[in-house]
Design brief:
The complex is a heterodimer. Chain A is an alpha/beta fold. Chain A contains 14 helices and 14 strands. In chain A, helix 2 packs across helix 3 and helix 6 runs parallel beside helix 10. Chain A starts with 5 loop residues before the first strand and ends in a 14-residue tail after the last helix. By secondary structure, chain B is mainly beta. Helices cover 0% and strands 35% of the residues of chain B. Chain B has no helices and nine strands. The relative contact order of chain B is 0.21. In chain B, the strands form two sheets. A six-stranded mixed beta sheet of chain B has the order 4-3-1-2-5-8, with no helix packed on it. Chain B has a three-stranded antiparallel beta sheet with strand order 6-7-9, with no helix packed on it. Classes of the chains: A alpha/beta, B mainly beta. At the A-B interface, helix 6 and helix 10 of A face strand 7 and strand 9 of B.
Amino acid sequence: MTKPLQFMGYRRSDGRVGIRNHVLVLPTCACSSDVAEMIYRNVSGAVGIHNQNGCGQVAGDRAMTLKLLAGLAANPNVYGVLLVGLGCEQLKWEILKGAIAGLTDKPVKVVEIQQCGGVLRTVAEGKRLAEELVAQAQLCKRVSCPISELIVGTNCGGSDPTSGLSANLVIGDVCDRLADLGATSIISETPEFVGAEQVLAKQAATDEIGQQILEIVARCEQTFEALGENIRSGNPSQGNQAGGITTLEEKSLGCIHKAGTRPIQAVMQSCDCVNVKGTVVMDTCAYDVCSVAEMTAGGAQLTIFSTGRGTPSGNPIAPVLKLTGNANTASWMEDFIDFDTSSSLRQEQTVEELGQSLLQMILRVASGELVKHERFGIGEIAMPRLCNYC
Amino acid sequence: MQKKKPVLKAILIEANDNVWTVLEPVKAGEIVSAGTEEICSQEEIPQYHKIARMDIPCGSVVYKYGQPMGYATADIQKGQWVHTHNADSEPPEGGCLL
């Protein structure tokens, strides 16, 4: 019997498996975000995000922020968390700490600006706590883990027609392989199902799941209509159109190739903890830095991401492996492209050959090989909102 | 001896598509081929953009990936560039001019 495919990951006390060993510095609101950055930029082994939200939000919007932040903290790539609070914000650290404790038993430490007494004292105390966490994290060792522990997000950003003709096909091929190996892949970006939802729904494992796919797409369109907006005024972007994508429907029909061909096993809400094997759909927005964050909050340890125009964006917690089917982009912006699929358009390699080699790269990245955005320290997130991105 | 005209490659995704995707930048009058089919381009078409495989009358459906991707908002002739100037998600408001 052949040995199942393995990677070297970090097995966490909550049972999940990480592929990175970060300490996450998490600000509770925009007001504490720069202070949080002063901490994580100065502690080797720490990463962080900027939180545009956390105050001035209606309840439903606040709940979305809380779910995202708690999910990011619970992601198994994170060893432990330092919360950086302000003191008077809506999303107090106590609330966030409680939500994280509902998902995982990992260590969570806290500093609060109004309680610490200013920027300098908060940064000093925050650095001390973050360094303590890093020291503990360094005691964790990589161990051999079966590929079935992987949850791989899929995404596209800065698409052009090569995405739908090449890179997304290779992503779809890898999703099929992951499903066959007992792992999980997530198809996201609901606005980019518009016009292709009937095709995607046919791929659902059951009629009920197919119906759920149609429902999230209908709800997405209705949400914008209720605001007097047409989703198509924001998607496709001007850059997509300059690249040759004419309509949202055309973009969607290319995007859904990321789902491959295996049955879709579930439809999850944004940032839901993904606990289903095989190919699943997550209802996210289509602003790539946001949907990647939503899947990361759902537990994705990495994302495979197609781009045609070329974007260097990454996520600070979960590596974003960048593919392009555009040969010009692959050579002109090679410093942030990890995997070139353009040979499939020149018919020099098949999609299956590229999928096989991408799967090998995923296993290397899962075992510690850095993707290009990580080498630059690039990592951005955007946060889902009630009035969402399209 | 007459020099053979170079043929530029395009991709036909599904048999019922009425557009191709050109894999190289195309100039007016150049021959574009997908499989055994050839089309003479009527205008300049940027790389990875769409060329009409047949006449697509205003108001009719544009097919790519074997699926409707929008409507022609003007009469499109075989060999013309298909993009936002003559195709959209919705058919033209007020119908097509005769």
